[in-house]
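Sample intake sheet
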Amino acid sequence: MIAQVDSRFQPQPPRLRPSAGKRMPWKSGVFIGGMTAVFLLWLFYRLFIQPDWVAHLPGVVGEMLHLAEAAGLVTLGLLWGVIWLRRGGVTAVSVQPLDLEQLYHLSPAEFEQYVAGLFRKKGYDVQMRGRSGDLGVDILLTKADGRRAIVQCKRYRNKVGPDVVRELYGTLIHEQADHAFLVTTADISTSARRWAEGKPMTLIDGEELSYIAGVMREA
């Protein structure tokens, strides 16, 4: 269950360095941080040092410079806003517990967002991945220490069998993640749970999900 993840989400043996195609979200922050530093240094230079050459620029060039500064300020604000949103800055709100029947009435996208909200409340950095070509990963989780987990959301009514669990395990290996979660509204078969035993996987069925949401709301 989500509440037990800290004991199950254990470090794995050292892995190969991620390939160039892997997403490295922190690099975006470093790049934007560098741009922000350069922009702030420029503003300090122009507004406080007030170099003579800026004062002697032709009128049109001076106006273009002012417009470029305003555009840069707005752009950097938007970029930092996007980074904050992706890290769950405004979505770390209380999650309304839903019973099993209410979960069934969610669309697949709404179900993914609901599950993502629970993980955010648990303290994970959450990145939504559910789209065409996601290779079975709906949500990517990152802990503060850098460990990564993948989440697959299944808004099903039919019982989940071991084939789904085997596919998720293959995705876990492909993504070089440390843990995998299967979160579903359906029941999970005994054979599926047995197959997952001893592997870095957590299987959460509909009743467990409703219970976890209720406990987390009271916490």
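Comment: The chain has two domains: 25-86, 95-218. The first strand starts at residue 125 and ends at 128.
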